[in-house]
Structure formats: structure tokens, C-alpha cells
Amino acid sequence: MSWRDILILDARLSDRLRIAEQPGRLRSIAIVLAHSGDSWFCLAVLAMLWYFGNDFWKTRALAFSAALIVTAVVVVLLKFTIRRKRPEGEWGGIYRNTDPHSFPSGHAARTALFAVLGLILGPTWFGLVFLAWAPLVALARVAMGVHYLSDVLVGLAIGLVMGWVNLGLYWQYGEILVRWTMGV
Fold this sequence. Notes:
Blueprint: H1 3-17, H2 25-36, H3 39-52, H4 55-82, H5 93-98, H6 106-121, H7 124-143, H8 149-182
Helix pairs in contact: 2-7, 3-4, 4-6, 4-8, 6-7, 6-8, 7-8
């Protein structure tokens, strides 16, 4: 099987999962899930967690935010190196205009990153929520036609790896970050 054959198969499988043009409840759910992994949304939730949370949650919000930024740099570098064009479609104009490259999926990487961090740093329920959320966001991105299946699978893998990389950074430098941002 050649590289071209793999890309054709990827496009066919992605088309089978696509529901962007089909009105209904499933499409509405996919829209919410597809947007729920947006960077701005994740950072807004983390900012609220930091602002309203106790020291435990403030520390987690800082760790997740720093990891999100580190992971975003890796994903953007890959996107602008590989430059795979997004699937054709109407939905997701903001993504198509601000980020025309689909590989790898930043949403999938971000949600998998949060699953790893949540399972290790948070209470069990916190990690399990992220573990359930990550594949749903990834599939929603394909269903809404802004990614191919391979984009989200590789994005999830990158998120898992970056979760462990960022945990190492957190264990090495987390205390410094907490002191610097919280004035401790």
C-alpha cells in the first residue's frame, strides 16, 4: 500500500464519519464537542479554575495552562511543516480561515494532553472526565469535516506523549512556576 493509497483510504473513512451537512441532534452535539476543545475555551475554563479555585486547583490550572502552551507550540510547528490542507467543507470557517492546516489536530492533542494530566494530577473523577472527552472531541472534529481521521489519531498520540513530557516538566519546574505566579 502506497502513501497515496493510505491518504485515499483516510479520506474515505473520514467521509463516512462526516455529518456536518446532516441537520439533527447528532450534528448539534458534534458541534458543541468540536468547539469544546478550542484553545480559547480551554484557557478561559482554566482561568476561572485558577481564579475561583483553592490552592490545589490553582496549581492544576497553572500546570494545564503551561502544558497547553508547550503542546500548542509543538502542534503549530508540525502543522506549518507538514501543511496538510483541511478537508473541503463549509462548517468551521473560523478554523479554515485562521488555521488552514489539518495535520495534526490541535484539538485532539489538547484533549489527550488534558486526559494524561487529569489522570495523574487530579482526582480520579477529573481524569476520567478528560479521558471520556478526548475521543469525543476528536471524532467530532472529523464528523464536522475539519479534520481527517489520521489528523485526530496522530493528534491524540501527540497529546499522550506531550502529557508525559509536560508531567516531567511539571515535576521538575512546577514549584518554580507556582511560586512565580502565586507569589508563594
